[in-house]
């Protein structure tokens, strides 16, 4: 009901959402992260497969457009990469997904407001607590820039994979501190671990 992680038939919330509150309201992930979807996402991330992106974003739009309307979203913001990482990889996969997503939905795309100011170790190297600590204070919002966009009240964050949710959570808190009212997210994949 909150993070959209798969749960068993009689569960309403996943283990994570049942015991902790999040910085975001709720979100939608299109697929479970498994060996098949891992390969598709890696194609975007490391080989910049544009046909793959087109297909996935169309599918994501198709499945989440009703939610986006329900959430009354007026801005799409990608989870940012640190500039060092951006230089290494040459592009931000969340940015490519987010830009296509916003264009297809006709919503304002904003990629120059939320920044990753700390270079962090990959999240996959840590357990849940480690992931939270690793990201603390890692994001910053340019408030003046945000204000220049006018009514960016309800934001949807876009990322490729949601694992523990720490990244989306930290980004949400940074955006809310800067005055954004509600933060939602959409992701291509979500892990079933915690
Ligand atoms: Zn959950």
List keywords for this structure.
single chain, 194 residues, alpha/beta, Rossmann fold, two-stranded antiparallel ribbon, binds zinc ion
How are the elements arranged and paired?
Elements: H1 15-19, E1 27-32, H2 35-47, H3 50-71, E2 75-78, H4 83-89, H5 93-105, E3 114-116, H6 128-135, E4 139-141, H7 143-148, E5 154-162, H8 166-177, E6 182-190
Parallel strand pairs: 1-6, 2-5, 5-6
Antiparallel strand pairs: 3-4
Bound molecules: zinc ion.
Folded structure, characterized:
Helix 3 crosses helix 5 (93-105). The model has no long low-confidence stretch (mean pLDDT 91). The relative contact order is 0.22. This protein has a single domain, classed as Rossmann fold, CATH 3.40.50. It has a four-stranded parallel beta sheet. The longest helix is centred in the first third of the chain and has 22 residues, at 50-71. It is globular, with a radius of gyration of 16 Å. Helices cover 44% and strands 18% of the residues. With 194 residues, the protein is of the alpha/beta class. It is built from eight helices and six strands.
């Amino acid at each position: 009901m909150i993070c959209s992680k798969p749960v068993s038939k009689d569960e309403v919330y996943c283990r994570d959402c049942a015991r902790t509150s999040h910085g975001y309201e709720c979100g939608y992930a299109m697929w479970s992260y498994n060996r098949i979807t891992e390969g598709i996402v890696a194609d975007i991330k490391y080989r910049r497969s544009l046909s793959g992106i087109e297909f996935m974003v169309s599918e994501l739009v198709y499945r989440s457009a009703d939610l986006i309307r329900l959430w009354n979203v007026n801005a799409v913001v990608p989870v940012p990469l640190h500039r060092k990482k951006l230089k290494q990889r040459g592009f931000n996969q969340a940015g490519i997904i987010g830009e296509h997503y916003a264009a297809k939905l006709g919503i304002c795309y904003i990629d120059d407001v939320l920044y990753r100011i700390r270079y962090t170790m990959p999240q996959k190297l840590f357990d849940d607590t480690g992931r939270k600590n690793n990201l603390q204070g890692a994001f910053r919002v340019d408030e003046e820039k945000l204000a220049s966009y006018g009514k960016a009240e309800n934001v949807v964050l876009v990322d490729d994979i949601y694992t523990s949710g720490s990244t989306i959570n930290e980004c949400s808190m940074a955006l809310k501190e800067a005055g954004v009212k509600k933060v939602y997210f959409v992701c291509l994949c979500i892990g079933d671990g915690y």
